[in-house]
Design a protein that fits this description.
5 helices; mainly alpha; 278 residues; 2 domains; two-stranded antiparallel sheet; 67% helix
Length: 278
């Protein structure tokens, strides 16, 4: 190494200071990564990667909204399906009462008793249908034409569930809200109508069940998309803490050596004094 021959210029100290400053900068970067857990915590770290990560974070936020929408609509459909099943069970009981009342060997008192049971079951159908709501939405009383759930993160696709009108006297439950079985003729007619209603209710329940299953499948798919996207974000911006820990120790050692090198370089001009000793 050349001997320092000037007290005005110390090139060695300048180089040592530059290297130490670079080490300190790298050390600060590593410490920030360890503190935040991110290798790209802001646009300053890597503008391109940060922009991509932010876009993906927006998609994840969208997936969260989609999951909530799908869950809400599925719950609405499941409530409607449960109510529809209860209606189907009541129709089966009503068919039993109507068929018994159509028996010509039955006396009037017994037929009237059956009619009381029949009308109670009939009115119970109306009660169930009118109270089968979830979050203010009823899919079986003809109050809602349809309900839609978000299907993707930008809202451009939806899954629609149509209303199934289980109200008395409708296309599905054909028996009227005034239906009685107090005569043989009325009881026989009721048996026919109830049999038809049981079949149409079964078809409506199948449609609701299919929609519920489709919503469940979509919700599961969206959850997987969200998880995979989150993992992708992590691969872009998360710091490898094991690697950063090893790098931290190396830089701390390098920093100490840099301080010593700067100290040695700063002391070099004092060698000039030896030239003037007698």
């Amino acid at each position: 190494m050349a001997i320092i021959n000037s007290v005005n210029t110390n090139y060695g100290a300048a180089v040592a200071l530059q290297n130490l400053s670079k080490t300190n900068m790298e050390l600060g970067e590593v410490q920030n990564r360890i503190n935040t857990g991110y290798k790209v915590a802001s646009a300053r770290d890597n503008g391109g990667i940060f922009a991509i990560a932010q876009k993906l974070r927006g998609e994840v936020a969208g997936y969260n909204a989609v999951q909530q929408s799908l869950s809400r609509v599925q719950s609405t459909v499941d409530v409607a399906s449960a109510a529809g099943t209860a209606v189907s069970d009541l129709l089966i009981e009503m068919k039993e009462k109507a068929l018994a009342a159509s028996d010509s060997s039955l006396d009037s008192a017994s037929r009237n008793a059956l009619n009381e049971d029949f009308t109670a079951l009939r009115d119970q159908i109306a009660t169930i249908v009118n109270n089968a709501s979830f979050n203010g939405t009823n899919l079986i009383n003809n109050s809602t034409a349809s309900i839609a759930a978000l299907a993707n993160s930008d809202g451009s696709s939806v899954m629609t569930v149509l209303d199934e009108n289980f109200s008395l006297g409708g296309a599905i439950v054909t028996i009227a809200n005034t239906e009685v079985i107090n005569t043989i003729t009325r009881a026989a007619a009721a048996v026919t109508e109830i049999t038809t209603s049981i079949n149409t209710v079964g078809s409506a329940l199948a449609r609701l069940g299919t929609k519920s299953k489709a919503l469940e499948i979509q919700a599961s798919f969206v959850t997987k998309l969200s998880d995979e996207t989150t993992a992708g974000i992590g691969s872009l911006v998360d710091a490898d803490l094991a690697k950063e820990s090893a790098r931290l120790q190396a830089l701390q050692t390098k920093q100490q050596l840099g301080v010593q090198a700067l100290s040695i370089a700063n002391s070099a001009p004092s060698l000039i004094l030896s030239f003037f000793r007698g």
